[in-house]
């Protein structure tokens, strides 16, 4: 309706996954690189996850446009299939004649295997892509794993890419899918756009659609981010409605009031104005926190009071923690004077406690800033040179990472809660919510924890994205140095050093020795472990370090 009015050749904010409109943010470039790595390797699974609307399918379509001519692709959009239906769909996608027995899984599997062998003999690569893979049942996922058993001495004959929402990672972490998880050669979680990318995203889509004028002022970027959370699909819907509103009102561009009205129509509510958010925030602070919590944010650290003896009859598994030997609790000025009950911990960890957990995480890093949630925490942390890592795992993984982490909990009443895992001991965990500190047995924590966590980590200088074979630049020099190659001679002889097969083998050897997936990709997990001895300023979860053979430092 508004395209002709604004001189546009196409609707700029369609939610169709058109690769022409793909805005290649840093995260989208990294996601595409992981897909390209997967098809260029020796086979196995590639996992790409992300929240709804972050652009997974669009990235995949862009990836498909870059595939070589000798690649055959089976793309499955509707994975709500049983094993037999899945095998039949793969045969249809790859133009494999169906077997005479249409009811036999083995008959379909044999046909697929014969096709893969014939394709390999002709120098062709076969790729299976499954979108919305979180909907696959475990028995279907296991059947897909079995399809990758066919291999030569050098490589597997079927490459598989799984696209899905974050719960796919949780599903693959189940014990019954451990064998499949071990075959994943590359993983990437696609996050939302950052505030500084919003204006470029909007103008990119307008440019592709043929716009010759600015229809959204750069001053609207912050509001657009707050309204959409940086999710591209939400941005598209919001901008489309805003342009329609500007057209109806006969305006040349979208202004703040039109954007707020569009948000009200799309989301059912308008974005609160700055003074409204301030009043609401202060009211929530006064009603939901104590004076100690206020001091936690706005005053200097104070010494904790003496602990009060526990009252008889309370469950010993969950009491407020005095933590005389925990420096992190003292540094935060936490109040450990009262005894808590499970009901109190549930109240502290409830949905309203998400901001307290993330503020406590920042304080462990020496940062005192008001934040509301994961997104605002990661945004503030970037200003201090820190990176966010948000994923699913277990306590063994957190012990290896050795960084305080905000945990997502499943509370007894069914709600979702959040606490900071500040310290992890052998059989007890020290948890925090604002100024409150609790001790919980690890066994009890495992029952509450959903497996989701968010932590902060400090990357080496010049780090921008995960490194793999073929990467170039100063980070490759740094990485060579970690494995014993002198830094100065390297810098003098190679201004643009390359991540070669020798370095990849060293990385994989280190990963195997350290209990990491040996994929040769240097991402957050590998970098945190590589720098654990040289990094003396980051807060620790365990309060101790251990050396790994073969690592410099």
UniProtKB/TrEMBL annotation:
<dbReference type="InterPro" id="IPR036366">
    <property type="entry name" value="PGBDSf"/>
</dbReference>
<dbReference type="InterPro" id="IPR036365">
    <property type="entry name" value="PGBD-like_sf"/>
</dbReference>
<dbReference type="GO" id="GO:0016887">
    <property type="term" value="F:ATP hydrolysis activity"/>
</dbReference>
<dbReference type="Pfam" id="PF01471">
    <property type="entry name" value="PG_binding_1"/>
</dbReference>
<protein>
    <submittedName>
        <fullName>Peptidoglycan-binding domain 1 protein</fullName>
    </submittedName>
</protein>
<dbReference type="InterPro" id="IPR049945">
    <property type="entry name" value="AAA_22"/>
</dbReference>
<feature type="domain" description="AAA+ ATPase">
    <location>
        <begin position="42"/>
        <end position="196"/>
    </location>
</feature>
<dbReference type="InterPro" id="IPR027417">
    <property type="entry name" value="P-loop_NTPase"/>
</dbReference>
<feature type="region of interest" description="Disordered">
    <location>
        <begin position="309"/>
        <end position="332"/>
    </location>
</feature>
<dbReference type="InterPro" id="IPR048809">
    <property type="entry name" value="GspA_C39-like"/>
</dbReference>
<dbReference type="InterPro" id="IPR052026">
    <property type="entry name" value="ExeA_AAA_ATPase_DNA-bind"/>
</dbReference>
<dbReference type="InterPro" id="IPR002477">
    <property type="entry name" value="Peptidoglycan-bd-like"/>
</dbReference>
<dbReference type="Pfam" id="PF13401">
    <property type="entry name" value="AAA_22"/>
</dbReference>
<dbReference type="Pfam" id="PF21327">
    <property type="entry name" value="GspA_C39-like"/>
</dbReference>
<dbReference type="InterPro" id="IPR003593">
    <property type="entry name" value="AAA+_ATPase"/>
</dbReference>
């Amino acid at each position: 309706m508004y395209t002709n009015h604004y001189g546009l050749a196409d609707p700029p904010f369609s939610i169709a996954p058109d690769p022409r409109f793909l805005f290649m943010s840093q995260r989208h470039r990294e996601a595409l690189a992981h897909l390209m790595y997967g098809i260029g390797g020796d086979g196995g699974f590639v996992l790409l996850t992300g929240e709804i609307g972050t652009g997974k399918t669009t990235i995949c379509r862009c990836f498909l446009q870059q595939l070589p001519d000798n690649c055959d692709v089976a793309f499955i959009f509707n994975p709500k299939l049983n094993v037999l239906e899945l095998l039949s769909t793969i045969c249809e996608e790859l133009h494999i004649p169906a077997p005479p027995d249409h009811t036999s899984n083995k008959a379909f599997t044999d046909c697929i295997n014969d096709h893969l062998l014939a394709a390999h003999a002709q120098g062709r690569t076969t790729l299976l892509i499954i979108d919305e893979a979180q909907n696959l049942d475990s028995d279907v996922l296991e059947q897909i794993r079995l399809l990758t058993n066919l291999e030569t001495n050098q490589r597997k004959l079927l490459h598989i890419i799984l696209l899905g929402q974050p719960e796919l990672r949780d599903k693959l972490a189940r014990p019954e899918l451990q064998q499949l998880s071990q075959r994943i050669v590359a993983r990437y979680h696609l996050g939302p756009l950052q505030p500084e990318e919003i204006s470029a995203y909007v103008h990119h889509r307008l440019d592709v659609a043929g716009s010759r004028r600015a229809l959204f002022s750069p001053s609207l970027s912050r509001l657009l981010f707050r309204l959409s959370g940086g999710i591209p699909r939400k941005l598209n819907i919001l901008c489309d409605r805003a342009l329609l509103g500007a057209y109806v009102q006969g305006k040349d561009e979208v202004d703040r009031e039109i954007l707020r009205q569009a948000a009200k129509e799309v989301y059912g509510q308008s974005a609160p104005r700055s003074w409204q958010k301030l009043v609401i925030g202060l009211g929530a602070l006064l009603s939901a926190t104590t004076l100690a919590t206020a001091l936690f944010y706005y005053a200097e650290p104070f010494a904790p009071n003496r602990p009060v003896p526990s009252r008889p009859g309370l469950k010993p598994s969950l009491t407020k923690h005095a933590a005389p030997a925990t420096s992190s609790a003292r540094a935060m000025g936490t109040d450990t004077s009262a005894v808590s009950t499970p009901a109190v911990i549930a109240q502290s960890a409830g949905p309203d406690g998400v901001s307290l957990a993330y503020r406590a995480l920042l304080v462990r890093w020496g940062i005192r800033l008001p934040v509301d949630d994961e997104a605002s925490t990661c945004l503030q942390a970037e200003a201090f040179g820190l990176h966010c890592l948000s994923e699913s795992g277990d306590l063994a993984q957190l012990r290896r990472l050795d960084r305080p982490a905000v945990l997502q909990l499943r509370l007894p009443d069914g709600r979702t809660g959040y606490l900071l895992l500040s310290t992890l001991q052998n059989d007890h965990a020290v948890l925090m919510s604002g100024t409150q500190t609790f001790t919980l047995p690890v066994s009890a924590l495992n029952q509450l924890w959903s497996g989701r966590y968010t932590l902060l980590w400090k990357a080496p200088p010049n780090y921008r994205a995960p490194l793999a074979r073929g990467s170039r630049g100063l980070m490759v020099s740094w990485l060579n140095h970690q494995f014993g190659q002198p830094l100065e001679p390297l810098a003098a002889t190679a201004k643009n050093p390359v991540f070669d097969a020798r370095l990849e083998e060293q990385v994989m050897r280190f990963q195997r020795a350290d209990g990491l997936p040996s994929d040769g990709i240097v991402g957050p997990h590998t970098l945190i472990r590589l720098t654990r001895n040289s990094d003396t300023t980051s807060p620790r979860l365990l309060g101790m370090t251990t050396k790994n053979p073969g690592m410099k430092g």
